[in-house]
Amino acid sequence: MNLFDIFKGKRNKKGRVLKIRSIGHGYYSEEADFCELQINGLDKEGYTLNPEPNVNAAHDYVIFFENLENEELEQVGVGYLMHGKNSGLIRLEWDFYDSSNLYINLARYETREMVKLAA
């Protein structure tokens, strides 16, 4: 499983995004085709970042919230893969959160081994 940092950032004078503080994590495993998102202060489960299937869309990713009661997916935001000086970052926009400066860092991640305990 790969663990990605989700952080609040700001651009410096040269346009490079600098991290201010971490606000959550993204979890991705090779078996899944999406990234689970955990933002501090929001529900711990149900948020995912999926690649946008429409190649003509203005964004690269879609953020969904899965209502666990009825298992419906609701689109709550989008993500934009950044290039140039900010290569390796995804800029996030959430419908309900001040997300003008939220990013996922794909370039720096930690690999965590999953350990299953036998009952």
Q: Order of strands across the biggest sheet?
A: 1-2-3-4-5-6-7-8
For the record, give the distance between the C-alpha atoms at the N and C termini, rounded to a whole number.
22 Å
Unreliable spans: 113-119
The fraction of residues assigned to DSSP E strands is over 45%
- Give me the strand/helix succession: EEEEEEEE
Average pLDDT for all residues: 82
Helical content stands at under 10%
Number of domains: 1
SS class: mainly beta
What's the helix count?
A: 0
Radius of gyration: 15 Å
Main beta sheet, described?
8 strands, antiparallel, barrel
Beta strands, count: 8
User: Which shape, going by the Cα principal axes?
Assistant: globular
Fold and architecture overview:
It contains no helices and eight strands. With 119 residues, the chain is mostly beta strands. The chain has one domain. Strands 1-2-3-4-5-6-7-8 form an eight-stranded antiparallel β-barrel.
